[in-house]
Amino acid sequence: MQLLVKCIYFVYRKMIETKQRVEGLISIIIPCYKAENFLLNILNDVRQQKYDKWELLIVSNGEGQAPQLRIANKFAEDNKNVQVLVLHESGAGNARNKGMEMAIGEWFTFLDADDRIDSDHLQKYMDAVESASIKPDIVIGGFYLEQKRNGGVCMVDIPKYEKKDFVLNCSEMLRASSCNKLYRADFVGAYRFNVLYSMREDAVFNSMLILNTDNILTIPISGYHYILCDVENASSKYHATYEESLMEYNSIQLQMFQRLGVSDETIKEWQEKHFFYDSFGLARNLFKKGSHLSVSQQRGDIKRMIYQNPLHKSCLRWYPWGRQTLLDKMWIVCLRIESSLFVVFVLRIQYWVKNHFFTIFMKLWPLLSK
């Protein structure tokens, strides 16, 4: 059976490698899930691109597709270089994989349906490609981070890094995100997103690609606007495979450090710094919407994932009390006390307040405003 699977994969990879690509064409892939309220904005942004050699693949996936499909199909009728693909399976990784299979461009890029791009977004990438002495495998650009609630905008830019500096110093958001990159299709080949992961699948995908090339080009800022909305998204739900995806991501990072000749001391520092937020993320995941774990299961997972890891103490030396946010201070206390019952108590209160505060406030507001 294993031999049959390997043979099928070998044939599939050869088909991908010999696929005829259209030179200079960018295949734009947009996964859509319940995106009817904002999809048309990003589609119009694509249509207004100054770089006009592109094809667009809109991949509708999951349940309740009819409203967004009406928008996507109407857009495809008006624009001949647009395809609409329908998947009944949910998941952004699944949708992106389908888009990559159908794409014919020399290059491809991903956009999220609830984000926006400037009219020169693609042009900036292609200008960088044209000016490079060697055709890059991946072009990575900075982007604008926007908070929809208060209108705040933060520019997340990238200096011109060599690979080692990029891996060590660039923010994880820039390395992990799939939306701030232009990929050379022949380099990516048959590599795909792991559909078993519903969280951090893009971090694993991009880390594996970065691990396998030195031909990375960075540009300070692209025209991408990553918009933080208040709508329910993947990060607000429980993910059963979150720990596995995080472990694979960290394993790839360690391989990268070893190939780049990073010192053991620097690697240990990186592990300690990352464990603080990794452990917080693992613990919080146990309490998110969709988790049906009992208190004893939550306590057992917290002990295993966090307190049995020796980094849970050494990581605190990088997080002085006075410089941390209220949530970070709460987690510092949890790591110091070393009580899984205390963590369960604190996080249950946090999520109860988060989920019910607005409702309670609205009920009390008429009394408070008198």
Task: Report on the architecture of this protein.
By secondary structure, the chain is of the alpha/beta class. The protein folds into two domains: 2-236, Spore Coat Polysaccharide Biosynthesis Protein SpsA, Chain A (Alpha-Beta Complex), CATH 3.90.550.10; 263-365, no CATH class. Helix content is 50%, strand content 16%. It has helices at residues 2-17, 39-47, 66-78, 92-102, 121-131, 163-169, 172-176, 185-188, 201-211, 242-259, 264-285, 295-307, 311-314, 326-337, 340-368, and strands spanning 22-32, 54-61, 82-87, 105-110, 116-117, 138-141, 143-147, 153-156, 181-184, 216-219, 224-228. The strands form two sheets. The chain has a seven-stranded mixed beta sheet. β7 (143-147) and β8 (153-156) form a beta hairpin. α10 (242-259) packs antiparallel against α11. It is globular and about 60 Å long. The termini are far apart.
Mean pLDDT comes to 88
CATH-derived architecture of the largest domain: Alpha-Beta Complex
Radius of gyration: 22 Å
Q: Total number of helical segments?
A: 15
Taken from the alpha-carbon principal axes, the silhouette is: globular
What is the fourth-level CATH superfamily of the largest domain?
Answer: Spore Coat Polysaccharide Biosynthesis Protein SpsA, Chain A
Distance between the termini: 73 Å
Share of helix among residues?
Answer: 40-55%
Return the structural class.
alpha/beta
Strand order, sheet with most strands: 3-2-1-4-9-6-10
CATH overall fold name of the largest domain: Spore Coat Polysaccharide Biosynthesis Protein SpsA, Chain A
Task: Compute the number of strand runs.
Answer: 11
Query: Which range does the strand content fall in?
Result: 15-25%
Q: Uncertain spans, ≥5 residues at pLDDT below 50?
A: 8-17
